[in-house]
Amino acid sequence: MRKITEIIIHCSATPESRNVTVDEIRDWHKDRGFNDIGYHYVIDLDGEVHAGRSIEKPGAHCAKHNIHSIGICYIGGTDAHGVPKDTRTPEQKESLRNLVYDLSLKYLGATIHGHNEFSDKDCPCFSVKAENFEKSF
User: Do residues 49 and 41 touch, judged by C-beta distance below 8 A?
Assistant: First the structure.
């Protein structure tokens, strides 16, 4: 198993209320030349957590951070016009918090980040640091 030191949160950069499946994201990523979906977990609009890429394999979600990280993507992240926005449903917020909590227990010492901390992007369209994930456990 890989050594996990970071948990990185993303959004799918799709309009709020538009549900997207893991298979759709997998197809997008394969079209970009990836061999599988880049994320390890995807949280859909109703808060259901879906497995993506095998956790044993490095992701393809954050340049220079894939080897030792886990990538989580929630569906959404823009308004109807494509403007970045925190579109997480209450169910997604709860599932994200629970998933990060579980992963933090399994991978002690792993730090929690938004993709925007490592890339010039708005993703995940909310401040992961302001959420204080680490302080709520």
Answer: yes
Mean pLDDT of 117-130: 96
Q: Is 123 a catalytic residue?
A: yes
**Structural domains of the chain in order of their starting residue, each with its CATH number:** 6-136 (3.40.80.10)
Catalytic residue check, 40: no
The pTM of the whole model exceeds 0.85: yes
Q: Which residue has the higher pLDDT, 48 or 1?
A: 48
pLDDT in tens, 95-116: 999 999 999 999 999 999 999 9
Residue type present at position 95: S
Q: Under a CB-based contact definition with an 8 Å cutoff, are residues 24 and 124 in contact?
A: no
- C-alpha to C-alpha distance for 43 and 48, rounded to whole angstroms: 6
Residue 112 backbone dihedrals phi, psi, to 5 degrees: -115, 130
Verify whether residue 129 is a known catalytic residue: no
Q: What is the DSSP letter of 85?
A: -
φ/ψ of residue 11, rounded to 5: -125, 165
29 is catalytic: no
Q: Which of 10, 40, 65, 85 is catalytic?
A: 10
Nearest to 40 by CA among 60, 21, 23: 60
Give the SS3 label for residue 136.
Answer: helix
